[in-house]
Design goal:
Radius of gyration: 23 Å
Number of strands: 3
Shape: globular
Number of domains: 2
Helix content: 55-70%
Low-confidence stretches: 1-35
Largest sheet: 3 strands, antiparallel
Number of helices: 7
Strand order of the largest sheet: 1-2-3
Mean pLDDT: 78
Order of helices and strands: EEEHHHHHHH
Distance between the termini: 55 Å
Amino acid sequence: MFKASPTTTTIIRISGNLKKTNPVYKSVFIDNVGRNHRLKLKETVQTWLNVALNDPIARILAENSQLTKTQLETLLIDVLAENLSGKSLNYDEKARLRLTKAKLSRGAFNRTLKQSKENVIKSIYTVVLLGYLGVFESTTLDPYLEIANKLKEYVEAHEEAHGEPKELQNRLEVMEIIREEIETSLKQLSNPSERHV
């Protein structure tokens, strides 16, 4: 984007060309670049959130988790937005990344984030408690363990989805089969009348 030099002149890149700006325009230009960067970051994060939250597998998992959609969105922003932006973000900046059109305060973002973290911790403690009490030794949890393994397989297949067109096509077909199996299994496991736990 731009590089501020230690001198009073700023060197910028516009349409692939390097240009110098006078010191008078330096602060205006930096402000505009910052605003453009924020808009691009918001667009990037919100696009990623929409894709992630509308993924069929993620949607089924989210519907059956202890997190509301808002809590999940807030937690994802808190955990992943800095990776997407490549820099540390404060909570005001993170609040602006939410998918809602309404302006969200830092306090509201932080309350939702706190609730989501508490729900995640409670879910982890539930799993630990069940393990401690020996419930995981029961075969009734086998379908959940199988789906966890299929999810791992699916993620690994996504990570390895590259190569020659024919090889890539084969991997995409395998991934589609795995995705359909996962969706079917998750829907069955989420139906209370079919649960065995």
